[in-house]
C-alpha cells in the first residue's frame, strides 16, 4: 500500500497524508477479499481529479496483480496408462527447454520467486522504472522460458501422443490445460514485472529531491521548512517563466501579416513589387495585482508577490495592492527593496485576521483613489478565495473595472466545489472575469502566472 501510494505520487498524482490515511481506513473497513471492492476503495480515496484516473488504473494491477485464475493441474484427469504415454512422449520431444516448459504447464506449476528473480535479472528488470517497460521485459522473460515456441511444441506433443495411442478426447483436454496454464504463466510473469517496476518507481521517487512533491503540495499544508525550500526555488522558477515570456515577446516583435495595411501601402506602386506590412504586438503586460492578505491567503499572496517581483523585467508596468478590509498600495515598496525583505515588511504592516475580510470595501477605496492605473492594456489580477464575510461583494465595481481593463484574471486557491459553501462570493465574481485559475500550490500558481504573458 505504501509503495503503491508512493508510485502514484511519482507519476504525478497529488495525495496528501490525510488521503493516504483515508485509504488505509477504507481498506481496513472493507477488506481485500473482493478485489473490485478493494480497488474502488483505493480509487475513491486516492484519486481526486478525473485526469488521475488512468494513472491509477495503470498502476493498480502492477502492484496488486490482474486477479485472473491460477494455474490448474492438467494431469489430474489422466489415467495411469495415459500418464505413462505422456512421459514417453515428453522423452521424445527434441528440445529439453520445450519438454521442461510442457511439464510445467501440464502440472500447473507456477514459477517460483527464485525463478522469477533470475529471469528478471537476465531481462534487465532491476533497472526498469517506467510502466512502458513492462511489456518489453515481460516478452524477454517469456522468450527465455521458451513460450514463444509453445504452439509448435504443443503440436509436436499432440502428434506423438496420437502415435502412442492416446485418444482424441484426452489429447484435447491436455491441450486445453496446457494453453490455459500458458496464459496463467504469462500473466504471472506480467504481474511480477509490473510489481517490480512499480517498486522501482517508488524507490527512485523516494531517493529524488522532493521538490516536485513540494511544488504540488497545498500551501496551507506546508511546514515552515518546506516553505523555506520553495522560497529558495522561486528565482529558478521565475527564470523558466521569464524565458518563455521572452520567447513570446520575440515572436510578437516579428509581427504578423497585416493584409489591409499591405494593400494600402502598395496602391501607389500598383503592387509591383509588393511591400509587406506587419502587425506588431506589444506583449509586455501592464499588471495590477489586488491581493487578499488575510490569514488564510497569506501563503499564496507571499509566493504570488515574489513571482511578480522576480518577473518585473517582463512587465511593462506593475501596481501591487493588498487588502483585508482596506486597500494598501505596495508599489513603492517593491520599487525600492528586495522581494524577501519587502514581503516580510508588508505582511508585518498589515496585521492578519480571519473574520474581517471585506473585498467590497477595499474595491470602493481602490476605484476612488487608484482607478487611473487601469487602462485598456492593463490585466487586473484578483488574488483571493472570494470569501467576503457576507459583506456586499460590490459586483458593480468589478464590472466597472472589467469595462476599463484589457482583462480580469482571478487566482483562487479553493476548489470550485467550495465556491458554493459558506460566505464565498466566487460564483458571482467568476462570470465577471475573463479567466479563473486555481492556485492551491506553487505549481498551479506558476502555471497561472505564465498565462499573464499570453
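-> sequence recovered:
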Amino acid at each position: 500500500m505504501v509503495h503503491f501510494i508512493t508510485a502514484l505520487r511519482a507519476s504525478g498524482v497529488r495525495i496528501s497524508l490525510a488521503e493516504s490515511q483515508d485509504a488505509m481506513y477504507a481498506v481496513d473497513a472493507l477488506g481485500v477479499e473482493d478485489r473490485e471492492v478493494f480497488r474502488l476503495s483505493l480509487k475513491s480515496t486516492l484519486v481526486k481529479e478525473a485526469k488521475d484516473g488512468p494513472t491509477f488504473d495503470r498502476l493498480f494491477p502492477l502492484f496488486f496483480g490482474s486477479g485472473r485464475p491460477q494455474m490448474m493441474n492438467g494431469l489430474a484427469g489422466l489415467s495411469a496408462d495415459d500418464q505413462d504415454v505422456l512421459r514417453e512422449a515428453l522423452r521424445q520431444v527434441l528440445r529439453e527447454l520445450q519438454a521442461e516448459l510442457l511439464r510445467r504447464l501440464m502440472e500447473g506449476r507456477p514459477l517460483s520467486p527464485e525463478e522469477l528473480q533470475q529471469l528478471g535479472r537476465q531481462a534487465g528488470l532491476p533497472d526498469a522504472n517506467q510502466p512502458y517497460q513492462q511489456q518489453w521485459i515481460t516478452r524477454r522473460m517469456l522468450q527465455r522460458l521458451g513460450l514463444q515456441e509453445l504452439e509448435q511444441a504443443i503440436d509436436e506433443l499432440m502428434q506423438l501422443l496420437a502415435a502412442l495411442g492416446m485418444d482424441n478426447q484426452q489429447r484435447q483436454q491436455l491441450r486445453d490445460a496446457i494453453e490455459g496454464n500458458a496464459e496463467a504463466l504469462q500473466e504471472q510473469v506480467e504481474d511480477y514485472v509490473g510489481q517490480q517496476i512499480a517498486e522501482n518507481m517508488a524507490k527512485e521517487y523516494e531517493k529524488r529531491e522532493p521538490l516536485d512533491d513540494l511544488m504540488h503540495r497545498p500551501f496551507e499544508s506546508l511546514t515552515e521548512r518546506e516553505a523555506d525550500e520553495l522560497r529558495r526555488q522561486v528565482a529558478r522558477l521565475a527564470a523558466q517563466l521569464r524565458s518563455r515570456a521572452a520567447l513570446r515577446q520575440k515572436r510578437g516583435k516579428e509581427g504578423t501579416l497585416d493584409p489591409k495595411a499591405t494593400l494600402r501601402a502598395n496602391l501607389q506602386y500598383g503592387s509591383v513589387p509588393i511591400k509587406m506590412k506587419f502587425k506588431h504586438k506589444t506583449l509586455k503586460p501592464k499588471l495590477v495585482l489586488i491581493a487578499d492578505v488575510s490569514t488564510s491567503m497569506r501563503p499564496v499572496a507571499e509566493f504570488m508577490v515574489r513571482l511578480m517581483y522576480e518577473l518585473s523585467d517582463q512587465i511593462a508596468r506593475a501596481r501591487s495592492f493588498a487588502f483585508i478590509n482596506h486597500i494598501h498600495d505596495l508599489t513603492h515598496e517593491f520599487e525600492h527593496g528586495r522581494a524577501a525583505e519587502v514581503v516580510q515588511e508588508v505582511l508585518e504592516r498589515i496585521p492578519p485576521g480571519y473574520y474581517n475580510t471585506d473585498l467590497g470595501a477595499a474595491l470602493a477605496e481602490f476605484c476612488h483613489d487608484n482607478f487611473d492605473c487601469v487602462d485598456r492594456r492593463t490585466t487586473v489580477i484578483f488574488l483571493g478565495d472570494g470569501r467576503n464575510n457576507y459583506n456586499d461583494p460590490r459586483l458593480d465595481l468589478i464590472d466597472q473595472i472589467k469595462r476599463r481593463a484589457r482583462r480580469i484574471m482571478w487566482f483562487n486557491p479553493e476548489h470550485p466545489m467550495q465556491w458554493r459553501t459558506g460566505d464565498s462570493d466566487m460564483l458571482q465574481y467568476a462570470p465577471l472575469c475573463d479567466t479563473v485559475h486555481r492556485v492551491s500550490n506553487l505549481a498551479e500558481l506558476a502555471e497561472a502566472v505564465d498565462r499573464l504573458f499570453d
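The CA atoms of residues 213 and 367 lie 40 Å apart.
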